[in-house]
Structure to design on (489 residues):
């Protein structure tokens, strides 16, 4: 399917940014507008030399190595729906059912995460009571959650503050924080409750006790399905999913489909400004001075870039100082016969209080069978979080040495890896600090007033997970198409 030859009445949609949000926005904008008889011209402008943004799979010698995200929550529909629409549903792959165990480091030792945790919160009393992660006084403090009254205010608060109030410091510092804040490489005491886990507040309101609320299913997240009906049979029974040739499959298929359907995808096309056009719509100007008109624009650049990108929208400055964590990944590949440890689990997370260099370690080839060829083992270590960016001053050799030291001491692997790969992701993890959702609402309202036809979406706004980004891209596309239809005579 190709769109009609561009004519005077052809609506022009420009998408800025070629990460998963921008590609999804372009895909849905083209489909929806075409479906509604608009025959649009869709152009995607990506500033770097490649599409995919944070999504980046390296395929080498039978290994499938993720340098950015490695999987997504199976219960979130938007990514499953998109996979189906792109015809790659059969490439979905599940967690290895044999490796259910995950560990948390405490006092230099790996402890199994007690069964029954929902979003880092204990919901089953017996495994929690017998776990050695928390002291008796910590467990008694957590039990107060059953009787403490619910807070009545609607105001945002920090995720850490909320959890400390309900469950006490130990559960936060040794269990919930390392599991939840890892998603953001953030500091729970600064992250916004309402922008990260609003369902915790809802559970408290409804059940008073967070533990009871989550146990009764109040942990569902936005875009989440309650059952597994949305999943193809081969992808059921796994909390997380990936693609057997890596997450880049999603990017490649989006790119191919968009090109086949007539969209223009340009790389090395960095946008400098988006300003109101003389005849309505917007004028998009690239860094090299080229400019083009659009009837609707979807911006998926990170929020701090909006101050410069949207000079006519003063509210963009609300995000000028939005913090981002910088992280690095180190992937280590081994010959199985050189290892003396079984790696019988998915890996472990490291609480801040442990003072280690790595923040988490995934036993990738145990967790995901598609990632390493027979006889090989792959592990991935995460480095850096808000408040600990030591790695940025280190060269690759020093970084690798520090990671290998932690791996030797914590996992017992002192063999030399066959290969190692370091990925540096500067300012890659947006931090939704307290009040974030108010800022998002203020920006959206200002865009409607001052830049009608311009829509903002992406990881910096309403969810960092891949399904959330796809959902935001789709929503922005729907708004852009509705705007175009309303503007037609
Ligand atoms: P990006 O991928 O950042 O894309 C934005 C694009 O816009 C970039 O390509 C950029 O070059 C371009 N751009 C910026 N400014 C301009 C401009 N002025 N002009 C033109 N182009 C511009 N999520 C999960 O669901 N599961 C995981 O396992 C997971 N793990 C992660 C691990 C790491 C290390 C990181 C960093 C993130 C992880 N995430 C994970 C989160 C997820 O990968 C990201 O939130 C998501 O990929 C972001 O997509 P995006 O399109 O919004 O932004």
């Amino acid at each position: 399917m190709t769109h009609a030859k561009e004519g005077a009445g052809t609506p022009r949609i420009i998408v800025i940014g070629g990460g998963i949000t921008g590609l999804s926005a372009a895909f849905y904008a083209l489909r929806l507008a075409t479906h509604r008889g608009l025959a649009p011209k869709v152009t995607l402008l990506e500033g770097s030399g490649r599409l995919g943004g944070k999504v980046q799979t390296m395929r080498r010698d039978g290994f499938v190595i993720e340098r950015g995200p490695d999987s997504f929550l199976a219960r979130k529909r938007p990514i499953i729906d998109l996979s189906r629409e792109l015809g790659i549903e059969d490439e979905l792959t599940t967690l290895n059912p044999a490796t259910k165990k995950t560990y948390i480091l405490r006092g230099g030792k790996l402890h199994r995460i007690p069964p029954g945790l929902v979003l880092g919160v204990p919901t089953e009393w017996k495994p929690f009571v017998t776990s050695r992660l928390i002291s008796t006084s910590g467990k008694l403090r957590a039990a107060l959650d059953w009787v403490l009254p619910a807070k009545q205010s609607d105001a945002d608060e920090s995720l850490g503050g909320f959890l400390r109030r309900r469950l006490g410091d130990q559960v936060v510092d040794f269990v919930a924080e390392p599991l939840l804040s890892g998603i953001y490489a953030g500091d729970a005491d600064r992250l916004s409750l309402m922008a990260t886990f609003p369902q915790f507040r809802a559970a408290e309101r409804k059940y008073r006790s967070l533990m009871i609320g989550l146990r009764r299913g109040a942990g569902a997240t936005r875009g989440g399905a309650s059952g597994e009906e949305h999943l193809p049979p081969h992808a059921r029974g796994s909390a997380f999913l990936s693609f057997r040739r890596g997450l880049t499959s999603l990017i490649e298929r989006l790119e191919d489909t968009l090109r086949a359907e007539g969209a223009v995808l340009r790389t090395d096309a960095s946008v400098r400004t988006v300003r109101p056009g003389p005849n309505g719509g917007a004028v998009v100007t690239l860094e090299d001075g080229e400019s083009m008109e659009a009837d609707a624009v979807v911006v998926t650049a990170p929020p701090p870039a909006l101050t410069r990108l949207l000079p006519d929208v003063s509210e963009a400055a609300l995000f000028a100082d939005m913090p981002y964590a910088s992280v690095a990944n180190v992937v280590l590949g081994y010959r199985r016969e050189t290892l003396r440890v079984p790696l019988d689990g998915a890996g472990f997370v490291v609480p801040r209080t442990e003072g280690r260099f790595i923040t988490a370690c995934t036993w990738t080839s145990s967790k995901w069978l598609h990632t390493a060829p027979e006889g090989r083992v792959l592990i991935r270590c995460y480095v850096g979080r808000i408040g600990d960016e030591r790695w940025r001053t280190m060269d690759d050799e020093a970084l690798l040495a520090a990671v290998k030291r932690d791996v030797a001491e914590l996992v017992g692997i002192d063999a030399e890896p066959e290969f190692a790969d370091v990925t540096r992701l500067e300012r890659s993890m947006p931090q939704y600090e307290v009040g974030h959702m108010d800022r998002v609402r203020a920006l959206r309202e200002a865009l409607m007033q001052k830049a009608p036809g311009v829509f903002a979406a992406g990881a910096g706004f309403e969810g960092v997970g891949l399904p959330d980004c796809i959902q935001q891209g789709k929503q922005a596309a729907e708004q852009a198409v509705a705007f175009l239809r309303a503007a037609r005579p």
About this structure: The chain has a mean pLDDT of 95. Residues 57-98+324-430 form a domain with the Polyamine Oxidase; Chain A, domain 2 fold (CATH 3.90.660.20). The two ends are 26 Å apart (CA to CA). The pocket of flavin-adenine dinucleotide is lined by residues 16-22, 45-48, 53-55, 68-72, 270-271, 300-301, 305, 309, 327, 329, 425, 428-429, 458-459, 464-466, 469 (CB under 6 Å).
